[in-house]
Structures are given as structure tokens and as C-alpha cells.
Amino acid sequence: MSQEPRAAITGSGVFTPSQVVTNDELVVAFNAYADRQNAEHAGDIAAGTCEAIAHSSADFITSASGIEQRFVLDKTGVLDPARMFPSLPARSDDEPGQMAEMALKACGDALGEAGVEPGQIDAVICAASNHERAYPAIAIEIQELLGTSGFAFDMNVACSSATFGIQAAADMIRAGSIQRAIVVNPEICSAHLEWRDRDCHFIFGDVCTAVVLEHEALTDAPRFTIDSTRCATQFSNNIRNNDGFLRRTRDQMEDRRDMQFMQNGRKVFREVLPLVADHIAAHMAEAGWHADELRRLWLHQANKSMNDFIGRKVLGRVPTPQEQPNILQDYANTSSAGSIIAFAQHSADMAPGDKGLICSFGAGYSVGSVLLTRM
Ligand code: CO8
Predict the structure, then answer these.
(1) Looking at ligand 1, which residue's alpha carbon is closest to its atom 56?
(2) What is the mean pLDDT of residues 114-139?
(3) pLDDT by residue (tens digit) across 277-293?
């Protein structure tokens, strides 16, 4: 859809946790956990009533996903074979929450790049694939800590939270209800990943990203004009997490696998790829954009083969690493933040008139795309 008057992204920021877990470290911890479990259940395994846990492998992880390491808020808990879960102690209600704390650095950098004071921001949208509490909204805590004006709210569209958040903010700017917004994506994936499941223990990492959006008439500074946005959803159980307040009844408090991230990765791969390729093609056709005009693709960072496939489909040829930068080798999948990390780290070289596309996809299923022109 053509979008006049237009909003523009004028700043972006990334908070990267200080702790890194390499594939080798991850696999050593997982295999130690598997050996402990197998020893503990040796009788049942021998009797055939329980299956032995197979070892993980760093080579498999790199070749299946392209991931080489991930950043996490707490590596000790994740790598402890007796724990296999981050140790993030509960904070008192008077302390900043984990998500709000991560958000401050990312938002500070985005505001600094935009040259905007916190008090000039009319709305904070905290868009992420999980929130550390039900209420008050994390976004309102961020509003308080930053000192922004107006209002704030949380939203969750899993891996597409950031692009859906950008569409929501851009629409409000176009409609005139606000002039400036921050969309912030604190993703603590480590706390809803099942580190004891070999099929997925390598997939996710922690990070926080933020972008500042402004009404285009308010700035002459270098910016990325949002030419058009497009969001789509289609229900699927293939990526699911059943944790939620209705499930936490007393009789259901046991260690349940479905209370963490679960996926049928193969099906996701097969079903999401055509969905995303068609979505981008339709969006670009609607906006009158041609593949040969696209200078950059900032894609969701879930899997290298997936990105290579989408890049080839969109451009009609193999994109160069400059045209389709990947960051998942360093960050792993950071849910909604992945495409925004790629944007934040690989956009400074673009010249006025250059066109680029942010695209996210994931649970729901959900797909979001944002067409940008450097001004
Ligand atoms: N080490 C060694 N071998 C392994 C391992 C391992 N760690 N894991 C699996 N294997 C084995 C399997 O058992 C299998 O063996 P066999 O052939 O004997 O059965 C073999 O390797 C192949 O396994 P797969 O078929 O599972 O392997 P794939 O090639 O399909 O790769 C992937 C697995 C990487 C998961 C791939 O399927 C993939 O990337 N799929 C798409 C995933 C995706 O994009 N998901 C989106 C999720 S993100 C999202 O929506 C956000 C949700 C909210 C955030 C959650 C935060 C926690």
C-alpha cells in the first residue's frame, strides 16, 4: 500500500549481551547432560522403556543452520549440565526488569543516531516474542526509564514482532495520532528455549534492537523512508509454546516440554519458504518495485539456507553477501530482532535513493515486510 505522508526510520540501536556461547561449548554441555541422563536411566534404556539421548554435534549445527555462536544473558546456567537453563534471578518490583534494562541501551543508541530527545517520542512499542510479565506493560516501564511522552504498549507476533511493530508505528505516524515512536525488541530467547532438546538447543540467542520512527516532514537528516509495509498471518501449530497463565494450574506445574519453544523444523522450512517468497513478490509488485532496484535485503535470521533460498527467489540470482547480509553466524536466531540487527549493522553504506527490504517470518505463521528508501 502506498503510504503518504510517510514515516521514516531515523535511528537504530542494538544491545548485545557480553556473554558468548560457541557451538563447541554448547555441544560439550549438551553431551554431558545427555550422558548424565542416560546413566540415570540406564535400566529403563536397557529395558527399552526409555530412549537414550543422542549426542549433539557442532558440525551438524553449523551445516544445518549456519549458526556458529550466540550471545546470552547468562551462560553459566545454560552450560551447567545439571541445570540447562539461564540463571536470571527474579528482581524486586522496585528494580528495572530484565527486558527494560536491555531496552535502555538499544533505545539510547537509536535515539542518539536519530538526534531525538526521549521527551520528543510519543509512543513506545515493545514488540517481542515473549514478555517477562503480564502487566504493567514492559513498554510502559521503558517509557518511564527513558522519559518518553505519550503512551506505550507491548505486542507479540513471535519472530515478526519488529516488522509488525514498525507497521503499527508507521501507520500511527501517517494517521497523525503521533509524530515519533520507538519500536524496541528485547528478545530473551534463552529463557524460552529448551536447552535439553538436541533438535533445537542451538537455535536461539539473546539481544535487544530498537528503531526510531519519525514523521518525514520533521527531519532533513539521513533517513530510511518507509515506502510501504505489508503484514500477513496464517495459523500453524508447527512453532508453538503453550506457556501462559491458563496453563499454570497447580496440577500442571510439572516439567512440561510444551511450556518452552517447540517446532517441527522441517515442516516450518517447507511451508514458510513459499509463503515468504510469495509475500515479498506480491508486496514489491504492489509497490511497483523491481528486483533489480533492490540494493539490500535485511532478512529474518533463522537459518542460512532459508535466507539463501529467499534471496535467490527475490533477486532471481544469488545475492552477494553485501546485498543479503547474514548475522546469524554470530547471533543465532534472535527472533524478531534478527532482521533489525542486520539492518542496524549493514545500512550505513547505503546512498540516497538506494532501496532495501526488511523481512521477518516465523511462528503464527507470520510474515512482515518493510520497503525502505535511503534519503
Ligand atoms: N546434532 C546432531 N544431529 C542432530 C541434531 C544435533 N543438534 N539435531 C538433529 N539432529 C539429527 C536429527 O535427529 C536427524 O537425524 P535422522 O536423519 O537420523 O532423523 C538429522 O540430524 C536431521 O535433522 P532435521 O531434519 O531436524 O534437520 P534439518 O536439516 O531440518 O535442520 C533445523 C534442522 C536447523 C531446525 C531446520 O529444520 C530449520 O532451520 N528449520 C526452520 C526453523 C525455523 O525457521 N523456525 C522458526 C523458528 S523462529 C520463531 O518463529 C520464533 C519463535 C519464538 C522465539 C522462540 C525463542 C526460544
Answers:
(1) 189
(2) 97
(3) 999 999 999 999 999 99
For residue 250, pLDDT over 70 is answered with no
pLDDT value, residue 298: 98
| Ligand 1 site, residue 261, Cβ cutoff 6 A | yes
Ligand 1 lined by 268 (C-beta under 6 Å): yes
Pocket residue to mutate for ligand 1, from 33, 60, 326, most atoms within 8 A of Cβ: 60
C-alpha cell belonging to residue 359: 523481512
- In the DSSP assignment, the letter for residue 322 is T
Instruction: Give the CA dihedral 135, 184, 127, 366, nearest 10 degrees.
Output: -170
- Between the alpha carbon of residue 169 and those of residues 45, 146, 172, 339, 346, the distances in Å are 54, 18, 5, 17, 22
In ligand 1, which atom is closest to the CA atom of 190? 57
CB 219 within 8 A of CB 12: no
Which among 266, 276, 301, 339 is the best mutation to test ligand 1's pocket, defined by most ligand atoms within 8 Å of the CB?
266
**Ligand 1 atom showing the smallest separation from residue 27 Cα:** 7
Residue 55 buriedness (CB in 10 A; 0-12 / 13-18 / 19+) = middle
Pick from 167, 163, 173, 162: which is nearest to 216 by CA? 173
Task: Pick the atom of ligand 1 nearest to 336's CA.
Answer: 51
Q: Which three cell numbers stand for residue 285?
A: 509488485
Distance CA 185, CA 188 (A): 10
Continuous segment of H or E residues that includes residue 48? none
